[in-house]
């Protein structure tokens, strides 16, 4: 199931950010899109991923959040299934792509959609390097 536009006419970023929707919606170039609603398998995998990252928070120096709004471009706001932040990252009500990794489901698979730079393997030794 693909995302569906909710309105026939474009809306401003300000209107999108100030409106409360029944379900989280995404915003792309003036179009408000309804997100796919998760089913059991989707929710189960999302929970496993969040638990995995948060259980290794101390070792990997990252933590995971479910469905956190992320601004990927000036007029693009997405709500990924899982957002992964470095420990100590600045807390913002709306994150920016430069501060996080985001995972979204697409056709029953999770894929990484927002990276600032090339991913490095996550391990205790990687967390001690700067970057």
Characterise this structure:
The chain is of the alpha+beta class and 131 residues long. The protein has a domain at 38-127. 23% of the residues lie in helices and 32% in strands. The chain has helices spanning 13-18, 40-55, 57-60, 124-127; strands at 4-5, 25-28, 31-34, 62-66, 70-73, 76-78, 82-86, 95-96, 100-106, 109-114. The strands form two sheets. The protein has a six-stranded mixed β-sheet, with no helix packed on it. The chain is globular, with a radius of gyration of 16 Å. The protein starts with a strand and ends with a helix. 19% of the residues are buried.
Q: Tally the helices: what do you get?
A: 4
The number of strands is 10
Spatial order of strands in the largest sheet: 1-3-2-6-5-8
* Contiguous runs where pLDDT drops below 50 for at least 5 residues: 107-131
Largest sheet: 6 strands, mixed
- Helical content, roughly? 10-25%
Computed structural class:
alpha+beta
**Beta-strand percentage range:** 25-35%
* Intertermini distance: 37 Å
The averaged pLDDT comes out at 75
List the helices and strands in order: EHEEHHEEEEEEEH
State Rg. 16 Å
What is the overall silhouette? globular
Topology:
Blueprint: E1 4-5, H1 13-18, E2 25-28, E3 31-34, H2 40-55, H3 57-60, E4 62-66, E5 70-73, E6 76-78, E7 82-86, E8 95-96, E9 100-106, E10 109-114, H4 124-127
Parallel strand pairs: 5-8
Antiparallel strand pairs: 1-3, 2-3, 2-6, 4-7, 5-6, 7-9, 9-10
């Amino acid at each position: 199931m693909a995302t569906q536009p909710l309105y026939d006419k474009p809306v401003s970023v300000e209107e999108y950010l100030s409106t409360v929707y029944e379900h989280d919606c995404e915003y792309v170039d003036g179009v408000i899109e309804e997100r796919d609603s998760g089913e059991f398998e989707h929710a189960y995998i999302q929970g496993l991923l969040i638990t995995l990252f948060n259980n290794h928070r101390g070792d990997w120096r990252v933590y995971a959040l479910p469905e956190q709004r992320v601004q990927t471009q000036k007029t693009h706001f997405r709500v990924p299934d899982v957002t992964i932040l470095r420990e100590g990252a600045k807390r913002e009500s709306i994150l920016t792509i430069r501060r996080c990794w985001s995972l979204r489901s697409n056709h029953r698979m999770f894929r990484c959609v927002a990276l600032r730079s090339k991913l490095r393997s996550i391990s205790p030794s990687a967390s001690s390097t700067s970057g």
